[in-house]
Design brief:
With 113 residues, the chain is an alpha+beta fold. The chain has two domains: 2-64, F0F1 ATP synthase delta/epsilon subunit, N-terminal (ATP Synthase, domain 1), CATH 2.60.15.10; 68-108, Single alpha-helices involved in coiled-coils or other helix-helix interfaces. Helices cover 30% and strands 40% of the residues. It has two helices and six strands; from the N terminus they run E-E-E-E-E-E-H-H. Helix 1 (69-85) runs antiparallel to helix 2 (92-108).
Length: 113
């Protein structure tokens, strides 16, 4: 089973799922094989489901064990500072996306914040 965050909400895909393509949001991805679950932080993209496989296309994806927690915490702090400053020259959408990516990486790595 693959569980991802689409732009319309969380979606789970089991074997035999109908074919589809859906846009992905920034968020965690869980891959369950039997009793084993792996987690990854996904930076948007697309999921394609065919009769026999799932393909995730993303600009960036980090498996939980690959996440640099200190770097993610630093990125979260920078994004929060930008959003709190509320200066006219700040690109709020970009700062919000940076914050969401950092929070997702920390969640996937097991360091909620």
């Amino acid at each position: 089973m693959v569980i991802v965050q689409t732009l319309d909400g969380e979606m789970g895909v089991l074997p035999g799922h109908i074919p589809l393509v859906a846009p992905l949001d920034i968020g965690p991805m869980r891959i369950k094989t039997g009793e084993v679950e792996r987690r990854a932080a996904i930076n948007g993209g697309f999921i394609e489901v065919t009769g026999s496989r799932v393909i995730v296309l993303s600009e960036a994806a980090e498996m939980a064990e690959e996440i640099d927690v200190a770097r993610a915490k630093s990125a979260r702090q920078r994004a929060e500072a930008r959003l709190e400053a509320q200066q006219a020259e700040i690109d709020f959408a970009r700062a919000q996306a940076a914050l969401k990516r950092a929070l997702t990486r920390l969640k996937v790595a097991g360091h909620e914040g």
